[in-house]
Amino acid sequence: MPDKNKLWYLKWASSIILLVAMTFTAQNMFPFNLYLHVLGTIGWLVVSMVWNDRALIVVNSVALSIFANGILSSWSEA
């Protein structure tokens, strides 16, 4: 993603998605909150890889695995 404008939009879209996901979590809208968290985290993971920011890569990779685990757990309960 060489175009800086696309990265700027991805960064802000991912941030807004994560804020909505946090609101869904506060409203106990499970598992929809997890799907939004995954979407926002993937966006930030892409941004962090383009920036080559190892701290953000680690945080978003771990967050993605945690949210994915939550989704898989919700599927097994159904």
Characterization of this structure:
Helices cover 86% and strands 0% of the residues. It is mostly helical and 78 residues long. The radius of gyration is 13 Å and the shape is globular. The mean pLDDT is 94.
Brief sketch in words of this structure:
The protein has 78 residues and is mainly alpha-helical. The protein is built from three helices and no strands.
Mean pLDDT: 94
Main beta sheet, described? none
How many β strands by DSSP? 0
For the CA atoms, what is the radius of gyration?
13 Å
Count of DSSP H/I helices: 3
Query: What general form does the structure show?
Result: globular
Q: Which structural traits does this protein have?
A:
single chain, about 80 residues, mainly alpha, 3 helices, globular
Fold topology:
Layout: H1 4-26, H2 32-51, H3 54-77
Helix pairs in contact: 1-2, 2-3
